Amino acid sequence: MVAMYAALIILPMAAFMPETHQYKKLRRMHKRDPEAAAEVEEAASIFSTPPVFKAPHYPIKILCEKDIVLHAIVALLLFGSMFCSITELPLYLAAPPYNLSAAMIGLCYIPAGLASMIVSPLGGLLSDKAAAAHPGKPLVRLVYNNVISGVLMPASLLLYGWVMQAKLHLAVVLVSQFAIGVALASYLPAIFGYLTALKQSAAAAAAAGVHSGMFIMSGVLILVASAAASAMGMGPFFTLLAGLNLLTTGAAALQIFRHREASREMIRSASRAQLAAAAAAGTDEAGESTSRSSGEDVESGAGGAKA
After folding, report:
1. 276 within domain boundaries
2. What is the pTM (predicted TM-score) of this model?
3. Signal sequence: where (predicted)?
4. Residue 149 in 3-state DSSP?
5. Across the 307 residues of the chain, what is the mean pLDDT of every consecutive 10-residue run?
6. Domain containing 46: what range?
C-alpha cells in the first residue's frame, strides 16, 4: 500500500513538474539554442548540479548533522506531544462527566486547528525578523520561536494532563488544546525556514526528513500514550512529556544563544572596523587639507616677496 501511494506521488512529480527535471530541459535548450540557454538565470548552477538519485536515507542523514539534530528533535517532540493530546481527547470526553457525542468531540478539535491557522504566519514573521537581524547565522532565526514553544508547550501539556486527570470544566480543556496548537504552530515555520536557509540545495530533503520523523514520533508516542496514560494517569504522563519538551527546547536554546552572541560579536567587530575606517579617512582628509593650506601659504608668501 505504501509503495502504491509512493508511485502515485512520484510519477506525476517526474512527469509534470518542471522543477524536478530542469537540468534535462536546459540541456535540450542548449542543444537547440546555446545563446538562449546561456541567458537563463542560474544556468551555470543548474549545469553544475546534474540530477543524481539520492538514497532513501539521505534526509535522515541530513537531520543527524550537529547543527540540525537537536532542533529536529524539538520539532518531533512538539508534534508528537500534540498528537498524543488529540488522540487521548475523545477517550476522556466520551466518558463521564463530559459524556460528549462523536459530533461534539469533533468540534473540540477546532481550538487546536484555529490556533495553527492564526499563529503559523506570525511564527514565520518572528523567524524572518530574527534572521534579518542576524543574516550570517541561520540558526538565530529560531531564537524567538524556540523560546515561545519551550515555555508554552510544557505549560500547556501540564495544564491539559492535570485538567483531564481531575475532569475539570470542558472550557479549560479547550483552552489547553488551543495553547498546545499555538506552541506547535510557533515553531514549525521557523524550523522549516532554518532548514531552507541552511541547506539551500537540499531543503526539500531536509524538510521531508523532518516531516517523516514527526509522524514516526507521533506513532511511537501514541502507542506509548495508550498504555502509559492508563497505567500512570493523564497527569503524570503529560508531565513526563512536558519535561521532555522543556529539556530539548532548553538544550536547543543554549546552542541558539551561542550563535546569537557570535553574530552580535561579528556585528560589533564590523561596526568597529567601519568606525576605524571612517576615522582613518577623516585623518587623511585633514592631512590633505593641511597640506593644501600650507601650500597656499607658501605661494602667497612667495608672491609677497616678489612684490
Report:
1. no
2. 0.77
3. 1-22
4. helix
5. 70 62 79 84 76 77 90 95 92 91 93 92 93 87 94 96 93 95 95 91 87 90 88 93 96 92 78 78 65 58 52
6. 20-51
